[in-house]
UniProtKB/TrEMBL annotation:
It is found in: Cell inner membrane. The chain crosses the membrane at residues 28-46. This is Phosphate regulon sensor protein PhoR. Keywords: ATP-binding, Cell membrane, Kinase, Membrane, Nucleotide-binding, Phosphate transport, Phosphoprotein, Transferase, Transmembrane, Transmembrane helix, Transport, Two-component regulatory system. One of its GO terms (cellular component) is plasma membrane. It is a multi-pass membrane protein. It is an enzyme of class 2 (transferase). It comes from the Bacteria. The gene is phoR. The keyword Glycoprotein does not apply. GO terms for biological process: cellular response to phosphate starvation; phosphate ion transport. One of its GO terms (molecular function) is phosphorelay sensor kinase activity. It catalyses: ATP + protein L-histidine = ADP + protein N-phospho-L-histidine.
Amino acid sequence: MTKTLITIGIWAALGWLTGSWLGASTGWAVFAFGLLLMILVSGLQLSRISKWVRNIEEPPPPSVGPWDEVLAPIYRKLRQDRKEIDELTRQVDVIMLAAEALPDGAITLNESMLLTWCNQTACDHIGLQLEKDRNHSIFNILRAPEFNRYARQSTWPGPVLLHLQNEGQEKSLLVQLAPYGVGRFLIVTRDVTQVEKLETTRKDFVANVSHELRTPLTVLSGFLETMRDMPAESLSAEQKERYQNMMLEQAERMQAIVADLLTLSTLESAPTASGEPVRMSTVIHEALRQAQILSRGQHVFIENIAEDLCVTGMETELASAVSNLLTNAIRYTPKDGTITVSWYRTESGHACYSVQDTGIGIASQDIPRLTERFYRVDRGRSRATGGTGLGLAITKHVAMRHNAELTIHSRLGAGSIFSVAFPPNRVSIEES
Ligand code: ADP
């Protein structure tokens, strides 16, 4: 303002000087010219300023006369605000990234329970799509009646367990609702499908173990009671021997179950040991020697064993897998059947142990369940031949601990092939 008044003053003085020298009209003309020039310059400056306003990210135009004093603080404030907005945006981005990284699903709802935001995990848990479902009621998205009842409570001290069907798969979700801010709600979802499965497996396992041990225990205590209650002389020596043999059989059965359970638990708790090269032919020959005793000459054995092929691992575990498959072949192959035992290197560099039999075979629907603990196709046959129902579970564990794969090919009535293929990095050749 002061600058403008000074400029007007200068032009007025110039006009007065010219007027007193060349006449009043010339003086007024000079003054008018000065004012016109000032208006023109000011218009020019304003047009530069209006151009800058359209592109406010740039620094303001230099030398815009009296406007310099106005524009400089505006631009400083703008820069300050922009910095603060950038920092806030960065913080929001970090929070959003953290929300996306959460292993739990997170959903926010407004006061009318309409979906406002959710992370990807929540989309996967509930099968929703943020863009499509935004502003839709959560009751239309999560249609489970248990959730409806839960969400309509006034407080939510604990989560609710929902069993949802998502893309053909059953999911167990723990869902917790919590109010936040003013009238807003947060839903946290946690996938507990695996935990539930594990819990069911654990319960089934305890029930199975109890069941398996109860039968021989009942038989055993039955015999003991009978022998205690009967006068000693009422039992013939032959009867006594028969009873004792039966009791021994039941005790041996329990022993076998406990031994297999201990093996399984050791396999599960011990860290995967890399082991050392094991000459498998020695292990297989020893298992075959035992198998022939078990077979009592009832089966034909064909051996096809690479003598110098070794696998890196734990010898005791490998021996247990080798003999499990072999004894199964004997137990499930009727008299005169053929059992072919092979140990060879495949073209891909794997080492493969396979036991093929011409036995009773397995129906295709049973094959995927054979490695479950205590799963037997024919309970009676398994027990009659001294089975515990744990052999294949142990074998599968041993295979897994050696990064090997157990495969089963079988057809009911046509025999089976059980193979364990070890990866090339565990395979070596040891010259004899
Ligand atoms: P088990 O002690 O009962 O043999 P396993 O875990 O070794 O337990 O085997 C599980 C079930 O798989 C057996 O009960 C049997 O029904 C079936 N099975 C295993 N090996 C064979 C085989 N070679 N031929 C036919 N069925 C088999």
